Amino acid sequence: MTQLLVLFAALLAATPAPDPLRAPSGTTLSQRANADALGILDAAVAAYGGPAGLEAARRFRIVQTGLRYQLFQNEDPELAWDGWELLRTAAVDLDAGRLYGEYRVKKPASDYVWWTREFVDGGKGWELILTKKWAVPTMKRSMVNE
Question: Cα–Cα distance between 124 and 137 in angstroms, integer?
């Protein structure tokens, strides 16, 4: 898994950022960002042997970090660029039919954190909302091909 993260970081660092002032005719910033993201994902898939190489992976972990924009999610107004710190992980074991995930977002300029854990075992899943001390069964979450 460490190799996957190092590879992804290397691909991200090696990918030149587009110059927003030189947009191809007829494309928006959103379209260019989408094309760049797809290019990074395509390069990562190719580095692992293409789709067949990824399909052969039976146990893996995914880590997502960055900012998440929680517009209109709070009782107090936020500026559009106030991104919440994001850390999300998921450990997947396809042979055992299990997934474990953890999700945290931290509000800017605050100690508030939204923190959840997700468990999927075969055809059943639960989300634990640790911030609120709730446990909720997840609907239609499954590690079983249906």
Answer: 8
| 107 contact partners, CB below 8 Å, separation of at least 6 | 70, 74, 84, 113
Q: Tell me, what amino acid is at 26?
A: G
Q: pLDDT band for 43, please (50, 70, 90 cuts).
A: very high
Sign of the four-CA dihedral 73, 119, 37, 2: positive
CB 1 within 8 A of CB 57: no
Let me know the angle formed at the C-alpha of 42 by 69 and 86, rounded to the nearest 5 degrees.
Answer: 20
More confident residue, 68 or 88: 88
Dump the DSSP string for 77-126. ---TT-PEEEEEEEEEETTTTEEEEEEEEE-TTS--EEEEEEEEETTEEE
